[in-house]
Write a structure and sequence with these properties.
α1 runs antiparallel to α4, α1 runs parallel beside α5 and α4 packs antiparallel against α5. A four-stranded antiparallel sheet has the order 1-2-3-4, with helices on both faces. It has a four-stranded mixed sheet with strand order 5-7-8-6, with helices on one face. The chain has two domains: about 130 residues, no CATH class; about 110 residues, PH-domain like (Roll), CATH 2.30.29.30. The protein is of the alpha+beta class.
Length: about 260
């Protein structure tokens, strides 16, 4: 979806001319095709900015762990590019004197577009979460914990971006692994993928890591074999969660040896 609306955003001026403006009316406009230098510059800079945003979206999505059912980049990018397409269409319509016909109530139209698009992407995120849940259908969980929440989350949020986009809702654990549930994502981790589990008194914000946490204190760190940086979790009872996960990882490490 992000790619589709990225292409719409880049081609927005041409789409207005092709589908919304009659050819005879278009040729009669004094400002088109001879747009002044400032208007042409705005068109070019707008397209370049959309392209930069798309590159940033791709880089962010690629840097997100594959364990998460849907990255925040894929969750919000379609809405961002849909908004960009809307703005560029409105801008070009204004340049050729057609804005009053296409955008009767631009504020309301933009709100409907953005809310509708974000609702669709959120439903897609929930669908992906359901796919993860089907893998655990009938599973009995030994631990089910709410996240630990306190004011230190503000410090964590200012230092790292993940707590903003990946706030945890529930932490689960069973003999096979753990499941981190968010409001728009699910992240399963099998114990066989975990290299080490370690307690963390205070979040090491100066060190690299992914924070699926709502607190900067009393965390549980998890290092996977295939990930360079650890994950930091904030279950309500970190000691019990750490002890359970550490025992399971130790048992599997002993069995493999």
């Amino acid at each position: 979806m992000a790619l589709v609306f990225f292409l719409f955003a880049v081609a927005a001026p041409g789409l207005v001319d092709r589908f919304f403006v009659e050819e005879a009316e278009l040729l009669a406009q004094p400002t088109w095709p001879n747009l002044d230098t400032l208007q042409i510059r705005h068109q070019f800079l707008g397209g370049a900015f959309i392209a930069i945003l798309y590159v940033a979206h791709i880089c962010w999505a690629m840097s997100t762990t594959e364990h998460i059912s849907l990255s925040a980049s894929h969750l919000f990018a379609p809405t961002v590019f849909a908004g960009g397409a809307f703005l560029r269409m409105m801008q070009h319509s204004h340049y050729i004197g057609y804005a009053d016909r296409l955008f009767v109530r631009p504020g309301l139209q933009a709100a409907v577009l953005l809310v509708g698009m974000q609702t669709i992407t959120f439903l897609i995120a929930r669908r992906r979460m359901l796919r993860v849940y089907r893998r655990f259908k009938g599973q009995e969980w030994d631990l089910v914990m709410a996240p630990r929440r306190d004011r230190s989350w503000l410090k964590l949020m200012l230092a790292r971006i993940q707590p903003i986009f990946y706030p945890p809702h529930t932490f689960r654990a069973c003999p096979q692994g753990i499941l981190i549930e968010g409001y728009s994502f699910a992240m399963p981790i099998a114990f066989e993928e975990i290299e080490t589990v370690f307690p963390v008194a205070v979040a090491p914000l100066s060190s690299p890591g992914t924070y699926l946490a709502s607190s900067a204190n009393h965390l549980v760190g998890i290092k996977l074999y295939e990930e360079e940086t650890p994950f930091y979790l904030s279950p309500k009872n970190p000691d019990r969660f750490f002890a359970y996960c550490h025992d399971r990882v130790s048992i599997r490490a002993y069995a493999d040896s």
